[in-house]
Structures are given as structure tokens and as C-alpha cells.
Design goal:
Layout lengths: L2 H12 L7 E6 L13 E12 L6 E16 L2 E8 L19 H18 L27 H4 L7
Parallel strand pairs: 1-4
Antiparallel strand pairs: 2-3, 3-4
Helix pairs in contact: 1-2
Subcellular location: Membrane
Organism: Seriola lalandi dorsalis
Membrane topology: Single-pass membrane protein
Length: 159
């Protein structure tokens, strides 16, 4: 989904929950996990998505798609930077990493969890630490760490 769709879902989930402050969402592939800039908070979640190779017709589902959020609130203005970790095709030599296609229902769950984390980390609300679980896909083959940007960067979840 395009950034505009993510933003719309984020705004819908955040409505009336973020103390009247304005918040923007942007994709940023330069985010370094576990190294938010000074004054920023981090939130990492796993979700499910599909990938489509740009070199061949192959597509594949994955239940190990990492999404990293860096967020900051300053003077009534909040910003959330989002990095969706990519994967590449195991069949193509030197295949480029491709962005995940996360289904709308999982984006809604990501945004619901993100808003809750913003309320805890930026507004210091005392909320439970639980989260909503994403909808898993039917995956027939094992996760392949050498083709996963999350694994390569050390943030991918392990069973």
C-alpha cells in the first residue's frame, strides 16, 4: 500500500487518542534499528506480507516481515518514521530487495499497536503492554535469513 493509505489508516486509528497534537507518518528506509536519533522513541513489530520479485514471476508470502517505527513528539507536532524491511527472491541471482505488500488488515493492526505505543512512550500513559496480533499467511516454505533484510540487520524475529 502507498504511504497515503498508511497515513489515512494511522490518522483514523489516532483520532482523539493523541491529545489533539498533529502527527505525520513517513517512510524512511534509512532508519537504523536500535539506534533512534536523540529524542526519538522506537517500536518494532512483526507482521505478514507478500513479496513479488521484480526479476521473475515468483511471489511469496512471509510471516516474518519486520517494521521499525521511530517517533518523536515536540511542541505539539509528532512524526513517525516507518521502515518496512524487505526480502529478495531466492531463485534469482543478485535479485534486488523488494518492499513488502502488507494487507490492509495488517496495516490496521500495525497502526493500532503503534498508536498505543505512542501513548505509552510519548504521552507517558499507563496502559497495558499487550498488543494486537497480525493475521498470518499460509506459508509453505521456511524463512530464509539470507534473503531477509530484517535478518541481515539483526532485527528479524526468531522462533
Amino acid at each position: 500500500m502507498a504511504l497515503s493509505e498508511w497515513t489515512l489508516i494511522f490518522q483514523n486509528e489516532a483520532e482523539n487518542l493523541l491529545h489533539g497534537d498533529s502527527w505525520d507518518l513517513e517512510f524512511d528506509s534509512s532508519i537504523v534499528p536500535e539506534q533512534p536519533q536523540y529524542g526519538w522513541q522506537q517500536y518494532i513489530r512483526n507482521t505478514s506480507a507478500r513479496f513479488e520479485c521484480t526479476e521473475c514471476p515468483r511471489g511469496w508470502p512471509s510471516n516474518r516481515v519486520m517494521v521499525v517505527f521511530h517517533m518523536r513528539l515536540m511542541d505539539g507536532k509528532g512524526i513517525v518514521k516507518v521502515r518496512r524491511f524487505r526480502q529478495n527472491c531466492k531463485n534469482c541471482i543478485a535479485a534486488p530487495m523488494v518492499d513488502p505488500s502488507i494487507p490492509p488488515e495488517n496495516i490496521i493492526i500495525l497502526m493500532r499497536n503503534l498508536v498505543k505505543k505512542i501513548r505509552i512512550k510519548c504521552y507517558y500513559e499507563k496502559l497495558d503492554q499487550g498488543h494486537h496480533n497480525h493475521h498470518k499467511m499460509d506459508v509453505k516454505s521456511p524463512h530464509e535469513p539470507e534473503h531477509c533484510e530484517g535478518c541481515i540487520n539483526g532485527v528479524c524475529t526468531r522462533d
